[in-house]
Amino acid sequence: MKIEAKKIGKGEFTPKTIAIDFDGVIHEFENWEGHTKFNNMIPGAKEAIDKLIDELGYTIIIYTCRSRIDAVKSFLKRHGIRYHYINENPYQPEDVSPAKMFADLYIDDRAIQFRNWQQALNDIILRDQQKDALVEVYTFGLKQTYYLEKRQQTLLAFIREHGIEVAIDVRHNRGDRFKNWDCSGLNLSKAIRATFGDTCRYLPLPLLGIPSGKRREYARDPKKMEHWYLNFIHENRELVLSYFDKVRGKKVVLLCIENLKSPSSPYCHRIWLRDWLVGEGIATIGNQEEIE
Known about the structure:
Layout: E1 17-21, H1 45-54, E2 59-63, H2 69-78, E3 85-86, E4 105-107, H3 117-132, E5 135-141, H4 148-162, E6 166-169, H5 188-196, E7 201-204, H6 212-218, H7 222-235, H8 237-245, E8 251-256, H9 269-279, E9 283-285
Parallel strand pairs: 1-2, 1-4, 2-3, 5-8, 5-9, 6-7, 6-8
Helix pairs in contact: 7-9
């Protein structure tokens, strides 16, 4: 929510200013879905910004490439994020170009801190190497008949055993797909965060879920569903590759409730997606067996 900055009188010093990137620093950004589509807030963002304002006395400027600033403001207000300005610094020196917003400090997830050119080049080379690394893909599926608590605890044990760093939900096509995996009031994304902290992230993959109408249509014909699914991935190839580029070099598990070995549950798109990623040369298979 916007807060009023203290007026600066003539001859007074300008306030200490921090420019904070929105996507990837305040808002969890993994894949572009439009100017008004948002995911969750990054844990700790609100508390850190509150401390910057209340204890350290900084003026907060949020900057973003999004054109719908009204939608950004609504997100910030909804999550209680305070700020002074968005994409502007009223204290910009008169003899300084407005093309670059002036600030004392910048916080950005895509920045490389410059110390010297050798260090900068080393950081860029390291990032390129990480981008070229293979994704180690695991798959995880459970029967619908499992009790909710057992499903969740079995998955958490699987993540711990294999050292999974990113859990990607490919089961449905919108939102947090495991809200009904409730266990003592925690949905799966919260359970992963509570159990593993920053060592394992939960990410939805809304693009690649089978729409409910298609699931019903193809329920008795898995080959037909597989054909539709792979065609859909092919049509959105660049978008899918850009998504998995963000998890290069990581151990990733593709999550799905349905069990591949059960003839009554033919929804095995996590396997089709895994094999497609391997075929594209960006992934290697981490586990061969399905969890029952």
